Amino acid sequence: MNKARYIEAHYTQVLQYDLEDLDIDWAEVEDYSVKWTTLYIELKNGEVIEIDNYQECDTDWKWANKVQAYDEDFNEVKLTEEELCKEIK
After folding, report:
1. N or C: which end of the chain has fewer CB within 10 A?
2. Which residues are within 8 A (CB) of 60 and not within 5 positions of it... i.e. 6 or more apart?
3. What are phi and psi of 50, to 5 degrees?
4. What is the pTM of this model?
């Protein structure tokens, strides 16, 4: 087994867009995307609806959503909890 050199902890923050008041006919939606906290809804007629949802978000740092270990070449290394404790020491 390769020795772990790096451990990455991934945290996720979620933004939610409430579309209830927009009265969108979803049969007329061509595409949608999000960039820099703004939701873009592109309609088939070329119109684009923009909804900005910027807010300072608090991240819950208590538990990571995903933790991965990598060797010196950034190949993923599978570690048991016991092996992880040895690697950290």
Report:
1. C
2. 11
3. -115, 130
4. 0.57
